[in-house]
Amino acid sequence: MRRFFAFFQELTLTQQFSGIVLVFISIFLTFFYIYLNGNIDTFSYDQMAKVLETNQESYLYTYYNNDENLDYILYDENPSVTNAVIANGILLSGVGFDEYKSTLFSDIMSNLSTQKQPSQVYVALNNNQKVMYRMTRIDQRTDFITILNVSYQKEFKASLISTVINAIITVVALLFTIILLWVLYLIHSLRQLQGFVEKVRKNEPAKIKVGKRGEIGQLASALVMMSEEVKRQEQIKEELVQNISHDLKTPIATIRSYSESIKDGIYPYKTLEGSIDVILEHAIRLDKKVHNLLLLNRIGYLTTSKEIGTVNMREIIEKTILSLQVIRPQLTIAHELEDIEYFGDEEPWRVVMENLVDNALRYAESIIEIKLTDQRLSVANDGPSISEEWHERMFRPFEKGTEGSYGLGLSIVQKIVDAYGYLIYAENTETGVIFIIESKKGRKFKRLKIKKEAEGN
């Protein structure tokens, strides 16, 4: 079975479709033929009974309106029909009745004495083959018999089966043609998508013409959007490399020039201590930039390298505030913190809080508010609102804010938060902007006191 599925998957879409349709048609025709053969005798019986009834009614009408002329109804030009009349116990037979005399006559005479209805259809054997006849009582002395030949029954059955099968084949062929055209259209559209992807991969100009409706149209639109996003990301990365080169070049050049000056006995910043402080400042800036770049690549390792535990989020926030509030001491950092545990490790969560608070310090005008409850963590500031365009791009890597530099901080935050099973988003408020971290479905916050009680027990 596995080999069959492996072979089937190697076929083209057209070959797969054709094979499925042919198998379906074969199974359907086989089933229908068996079913038809099982019910054809019943259907044939009903139809031939109607033929017998129609013929007899026509002959009897002529008989009743033609002075009871028996010769007219005995001799019929139709080779499939044989008529016979029993009048006063004497058999008056028409053309073709001789082949039935040997075996069928006794059956007719037997039924004649037991028949209770004016007209009745019988099935009998004649030379080991089924024969159908209808016997109608004209009056107390006369009975009219009409027999259908065996050849007519066989022809009728064969014709019926042939008609039904031909009708089925015609319908199936029509459906097959329609579906095949539809599949060819799908294949054409998929080949267009394949050609588009190949051109994008080779960095060649590419266009795609597929309707916007339907799944293929939606896929085409998604590919076009992806191509545009890839180009935009490539452009951003090129700009990022230039910006990084520029940002790294400045502190490196400063460190180098100040070091060479000190070596020559010259103090660019008045004194030796002041010049060394400048070197240290730029070394710290350089270290921070390199640290952010390395951290972006190490997030996956930090969040999955070992079993995830829990950390005291209140302690992390307090340490972050203590270390960063000196950047803009004139700002007020208000906080309401509960003892809450978060899933994860201390270092990544410290990076999250430092980036969020640093971002708030950059844009806040007078106050930053940090709240931690068992429902969510929020960092709000009274700075300018976020534009709709920036709102869609702020968590993407290599993006740059209005006052940012690398555009890596919020991307790092989003990756860490998501890796630990939480959700982060930003909203504009009446007084500024708020960043919110909440738990995803199935991931809940823990109060620290619960853990302490458990440890106490």
Please give a handful of descriptors for the protein shown:
457 residues, Helix Hairpins, Heat Shock Protein 90, five-stranded mixed sheet, 13 strands, 60% helix, rod-shaped, disordered C terminus
What order do the helices and strands come in, and which of them pair?
Elements: H1 2-10, H2 13-64, H3 70-74, E1 81-87, E2 90-93, H4 98-101, H5 104-114, E3 119-126, E4 129-137, E5 142-148, H6 150-201, H7 214-263, H8 272-304, E6 310-312, H9 313-324, E7 332-337, E8 340-343, H10 346-363, E9 367-372, E10 376-381, H11 388-393, H12 409-419, E11 422-428, E12 433-439, E13 446-447, H13 448-456
Parallel strand pairs: 7-9
Antiparallel strand pairs: 1-2, 1-5, 3-4, 4-5, 6-8, 8-13, 9-10, 10-12, 11-12
Helix pairs in contact: 2-6, 6-7, 7-8, 8-12, 9-10, 10-12
